[in-house]
Known about the structure:
The complex is a heterodimer. By secondary structure, chain A is of the alpha+beta class. In chain A, about 30% of the residues lie in helices and about 35% in strands. Chain A is built from 6 helices and 8 strands, in the order βαββαβαβαββαβα. In chain A, α1 runs antiparallel to α2 (about 70-85). By secondary structure, chain B is an alpha/beta fold. In chain B, α6 runs parallel beside α7 (about 160-175), α7 (about 160-175) crosses α14 and α9 packs across α11 (about 310-325). The termini of chain B are far apart. The interface between A and B is medium-sized, with 27 and 27 residues.
Amino acid sequence: MSENQWDNPGSSTGQQFVLSIMSKDHVGIIHQVSKAISSLDGNIADVRQSVLSGYFTMILVASFPAGVTRRAVERKLAEADANSETAIEVMVCEADEDALAALAPDPKNSYVLTATGADKVGIVARVSQFCVLHNINILDLSTTVSDGDYVMIMVIDLAQYDPTRRADVSLVRQDLKTFSQESGLKVVLQHYDIFRAVNEINPPVLR
Amino acid sequence: MLPSDEILTTVEMIQKENLDVRAVTLGISLLDCHQADVALTCLAIKAKIRRHAGALVSTCETISAEFAIPVVNKRIAVTPIAMVGAGFDADGFVQIAHALDEIASEVGVDFLGGFSADVSNGMTEGDRQLIAAIPQALAETSKVCASINVGSTRYGINMDAVVLMGQTVKALAERSADTGGFAAAKFVVFTNQPGDNPFMAGAIHGVGQPEVVINVGVSGPGVIASALKRKIAQAGEQQLGLQDLAEEIKRTAFRVTRCGELIGRQVARKLGVPFGVVDLSLAPTPKMGDSVGEILQILGVDAIGAPGSTAIVALLNDAVKKGGTFASQSVGGLSGAFIPVCEDQALADAVRDDSLVLEKLEAMTSVCSVGLDMIAIPGSVDAGTISAIIADEMAIGMINGKTTAVRLIPVPGKEAGEFVSFGGLFGESAIAPVRNTGKSARFIAFGGKIPAPIHSLKN
């Protein structure tokens, strides 16, 4: 998802911003936002977009020529908001170089954690608390309802679980077993490669 | 992230539907182990197996824990021992069997296969001595499995060997009468035996294989049964044709195979051993919900063995292969659906209820792997009749260019309708009646060989 191979050669000397966009979903949001960015000679480096329950959300990283300030980007996007039939809420922040340079997590440590239980307040909070306590980074999260139960599906990175013993997934499983007994949630941890192997045409790379 | 329904289906497969890797089998060549005498040969065999297989079980367990996919059996297959021990007498072969049993226990594997010979086009003196040693060797050891290849599409069927096989099966059962003739469950007679099959009792490390190799046998009847039930519940029986169900089997076989290959390749890599093949066989266990027979019932026969059963097995077997071959880089071994009666609860029940008989099983084996497998028959059935049953099954394999095998257990002192239990993965079953016993004696007495079949004019 890199567009800067095509245009905006000056981006390397410019400024990178992270933009978060939310709006009630309708036709034309992406056009309005991207038009505003390109009018400032901004170049979209990466973007993720999703629609949930009729609401549109998008996060993107864009680079702008030197001299384009955060305020300028906000003003331009405010124009997009003004021209839109529904409000487009925008948040702009300057990108942190360290965060941008961070490497993608090693797929070797990627696992899928599913937590299933009766639908009630606080499941996500409890499971994420477990992750915080054990230094487990959540890479991706979605929830769904299956057979009347609330299911939380997470892709997690176990690289920092316990740097001294990280190869030993059985320790995570032990902790999860205790957590499962305490919380009453049914918890399953499987390596992400299993899911890729059985669902995708391309088999996962051996590592 | 993958769609949540795919993630949940996968979790379900592993948690509820018995998705596992049935066997990781390390093939080891013992061709360089023949020494001047039996004792030195035994030492060389043990040293070589210890060197290559010492870490097999722990590696399987590590990978299994990391991926949370059970590896049910860890096994070793060796070069057919008739080649390794050629020149020794039957006593010498028995000693080799003991050495194999000891080293199998030492490295912690469940079984070791390869107490074997290929006599499809004739018998060497070594082959003859090994065959003579089989009853004592298997009765006195616990982990060693034996197999003899008596026929092939290229050479025909060695009927002199088939005669010996009937006698061997009887001798094995009688020597292990206290365990219901269990020693016979560790012995299988083949036509077109593959050299890379990871499943027991017929695993060998055949000629033409590498020095060492990891082969994997997948499982998955439970997963396929659940997928079919889900499909039928979602779409409704009225809306589905058999092609839709075949498609569902194919897709599920893809998933099962991928999982087996992933685990197998990880084990091979960790051991520093080349990966050989995935064997796409649907291998049932006596566990509830892990049955090939149940798939037949889901696909529409109320009693297994009823008309239609053979057609269903054909559909199942073919769909499994289609899904599996696409999933895997290298497929081999037996690759099909097994119908081992004792090891499959639904099949064992059908034999008990008399809906599934030996003749129908024989018909079913003509369209699936691997043959008349784990069938308990009355201990009174004579060796000649067992040889004749073997000859029939071998003929199916020879003519159709496929692997067929026979693993019969003539349970000493028991008659048709009585029960026998072998425990664990070997299961239990009612004893199946054998009709027309003693009526094939003149045919068997001819001996000699059945010539190789013609390879054109196929009808």
